[in-house]
């Protein structure tokens, strides 16, 4: 028999995870499926579980001057309906799963799972998103990029949990987002492209390009982004990104399709900027 | 442990595990078989119920996340006036063939109608995007929902 715990506050949660190895359970849209068993049987968890969905302190989106703060149990629905967040953050959440899943799936869960196909990861890479991890005796802030170590692998320690996501506010002049899957809803991405850019005094100030689900980790190359702002060389940028792609064929797509099509989409976005097309 | 929640308007208690699925509890412990198990992974929507007024897939809902909340299944919803309007629209438009997806479709339809706003074609498709039907080809269902958005929502 596994032990299931149900803390009502963050302090209680921190005490519980400090005592032993618990698997943290939020919305359940991934874990309930990954641990599936036959009808009528309890899910097949190997380790003790601590549920956190009932902790009200862990829900909600706030902002200060420089950051958005998104608590871990905030649902995808809360994200898509948020009055605080800009559209470029809301859109990827609006396209994940389906309405019944988005009502339940949490922001923290999508990150901690660290699935190759997690659609929030390329977004958070592009936005230089950070996370606050808490344990009984300490807190630490990591970039999402440093936190995600590989497919289903993160830097989380046994007595820690992800408390909130912190997204720095930046001046975004325009953005593009493309999720490609074999249908529109209830689908895991073949790949996704997040594209942001900023202008200052009518000059291109920055671009950010992040591609999800091609590699085990999202692809982002800051040096190439900086070089593009200087030389506007689309080919050079694409070559730099292509060098980092190391995907494999799997049931959702092939390496060739993912790399070719995602790069063509990036090419189109970059060309749009060079042509001076208007962005929303 | 004993889990307490509200089911179709009544306070209920059930001896179960916190990691048990809400789907199994409503079907087996309460013998409410209108909620179906299809894919068991959140894609088909046959197991949709309302949890505190929002549509959720009961196949991926642990009992822990139900404690103290209100669950309405198709059996509970079928006693409302709104259900009768949805049932009629589905019948008139031929939106039911084998019927397995229908309870979930009806719940997702109500999830849309209760927004109380006029719905675009895109809203309807997104609203039902978590429900799979392998027989009607969806068009009859969309017709029924379109009709409801015109008749029900705008007259409310």
**Secondary structure tally: strands of chain A:** 13
Radius of gyration of chain A: 19 Å
- Specify the number of helices of chain B: 6
Tell me the strand percentage band of chain B. Answer: 5-15%
Which bin fits the share of residues in helices of chain B?
Answer: 25-40%
Q: What is the H-and-E element order of chain A? A: EHEHEEEHHHHHEEHEEEEEEHHH
Give helix % range of chain A. Answer: 25-40%
**Count of discrete alpha- or pi-helical segments spanning 4 or more residues of chain A:** 11
Q: Quote the average pLDDT of chain A.
A: 94
Main β sheet profile of chain A? 5 strands, antiparallel
Major β-sheet profile of chain B = 5 strands, mixed
Read across the widest sheet of chain B, the strand sequence of neighbours is 2-1-5-3-4
Distance N to C terminus of chain B:
43 Å
CATH superfamily of the largest domain in chain B: Beta-grasp domain
- Secondary-structure content class of chain A: alpha+beta
Assign the CATH architecture of the largest domain in chain B: Roll
Domain count of chain A, please report it: 2
Shape of chain B: globular
Q: Segments of chain B where pLDDT lies below 50 for 5+ residues? A: none
Brief descriptors of the model:
heterodimer; A: 280 residues; alpha+beta; Uridine Diphospho-n-acetylenolpyruvylglucosamine Reductase, domain 3; Enolase-like, domain 1; 2 domains; five-stranded antiparallel sheet; three-stranded parallel sheet; 11 helices; 13 strands; 24% strand; globular; B: 156 residues; Ubiquitin-like (UB roll); DNA polymerase, domain 1; 6 helices
Task: Give a written overview of the molecule.
The complex is a heterodimer of chains A (280) and B (156). With 280 residues, chain A is α+β, with helices and mostly antiparallel strands. Chain A has 2 domains: 165 residues, 2-Layer Sandwich (Uridine Diphospho-n-acetylenolpyruvylglucosamine Reductase, domain 3); 102 residues, CO dehydrogenase flavoprotein, C-terminal domain (Enolase-like, domain 1). Chain A has 11 helices and 13 strands. In chain A, β8 and β9 form a beta hairpin. Chain B is α+β, with helices and mostly antiparallel strands and 156 residues long. The model of chain B has no long low-confidence stretch (mean pLDDT 95). Chains A and B meet through α5 of A and β4 of B.
């Amino acid at each position: 028999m596994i032990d299931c715990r149900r803390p009502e506050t963050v302090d209680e949660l921190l005490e519980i995870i400090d005592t032993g190895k618990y698997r943290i359970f939020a919305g359940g849209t991934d874990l309930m499926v990954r641990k599936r068993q036959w009808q009528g049987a309890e899910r097949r968890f190997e380790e003790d579980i601590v549920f956190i969905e009932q902790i009200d302190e862990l829900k909600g989106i706030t902002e200060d001057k420089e950051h958005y703060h998104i608590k871990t149990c905030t649902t995808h629905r809360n994200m898509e309906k948020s009055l605080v967040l800009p559209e470029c953050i809301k859109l990827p959440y609006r396209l994940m799963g389906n309405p019944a899943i988005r009502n339940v799936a949490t922001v923290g869960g999508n990150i901690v799972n660290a699935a190759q196909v997690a659609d929030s990861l390329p977004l958070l890479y592009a936005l230089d998103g950070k996370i606050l991890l808490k344990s009984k005796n300490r807190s630490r802030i990591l970039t999402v990029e440093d936190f995600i170590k590989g497919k289903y692998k993160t830097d989380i320690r046994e007595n820690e949990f992800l408390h909130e996501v912190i997204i720095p506010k930046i001046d975004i002049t325009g953005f593009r987002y493309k999720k490609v899957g074999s249908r529109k809803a209830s689908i895991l991405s073949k790949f996704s492209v997040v594209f942001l850019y900023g202008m200052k005094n009518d000059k291109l100030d920055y671009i950010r390009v992040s591609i999800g689900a091609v590699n085990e980790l999202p692809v982002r190359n800051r040096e190439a982004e900086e070089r593009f702002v200087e030389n506007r060389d689309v080919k050079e940028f694409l070559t730099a990104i292509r060098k980092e792609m190391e995907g494999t064929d799997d049931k959702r797509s092939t390496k060739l399709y993912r790399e070719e099509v995602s790069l063509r989409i990036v090419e189109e976005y970059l060309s749009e900027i060079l042509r001076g097309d208007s962005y929303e | 442990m004993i889990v307490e929640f509200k089911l179709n308007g009544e306070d209920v208690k059930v001896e179960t595990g916190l990691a048990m699925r809400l789907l199994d509890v409503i079907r087996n412990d309460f013998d409410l078989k209108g909620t179906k198990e299809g894919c068991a992974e959140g894609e088909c929507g046959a197991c949709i119920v309302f949890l505190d007024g929002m549509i959720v897939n009961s196949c991926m809902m642990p009992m822990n996340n139900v404690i103290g909340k209100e669950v309405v299944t198709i059996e509970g919803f079928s006693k409302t006036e709104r259900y009768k309007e949805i049932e009629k629209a589905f019948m008139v438009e031929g939106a039911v063939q084998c019927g397995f997806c229908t309870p979930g479709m009806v719940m997702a339809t109500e999830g849309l109608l209760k927004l109380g706003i006029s719905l675009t074609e895109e809203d309807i498709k997104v609203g039902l995007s978590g429900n799979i039907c392998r027989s009607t080809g969806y068009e009859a269902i969309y017709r029924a929902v379109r009709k409801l958005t015109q008749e029900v929502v705008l007259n409310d």
